[in-house]
Amino acid sequence: MTEFQQKVYEVVRGIKKGSVMTYKEVAIAAGHPNAFRAVGSLMKQNYDREIPCHRVIRSDDKVGEYNRGGSERKAEMLREEGFRR
Fold it and tell me: Within 13 Å of residue 28, how many CA atoms lie on the same side as its CB?
């Protein structure tokens, strides 16, 4: 695992229930502000339940895709956690 991947996963692990970050915000927090597409790719490949990738959304406030059930499941999980926007 690269240093960038480790930083991204660390940032995403820190997103609390009921909160979200955008792919760009995660990239910035990981120290690579222009790597938001790479963050998206990492989240798409993530199957580790300890890394809550469903809490990472698009900058246009759309939830985006989710590799474990699609965007509907992702939105449902966020609602269940109390996220409202």
Answer: 6
The pLDDT tens digits of the residues spanning 43-82 come to 999 999 999 999 999 999 999 999 999 999 999 999 999 9
Task: Please tell me whether residue 25 adopts helix, strand or coil conformation.
Answer: helix
Q: Domain count for the chain, please give it.
A: 1
Q: In which domain, by residue range, is 50 found?
A: 3-80
Provide the annotated active-site residues: 53
d(CA 44, CA 82): 23
Is 85 among the domain residues?
A: no
Alpha-carbon gap, residue 58 to 75, rounded angstroms: 12
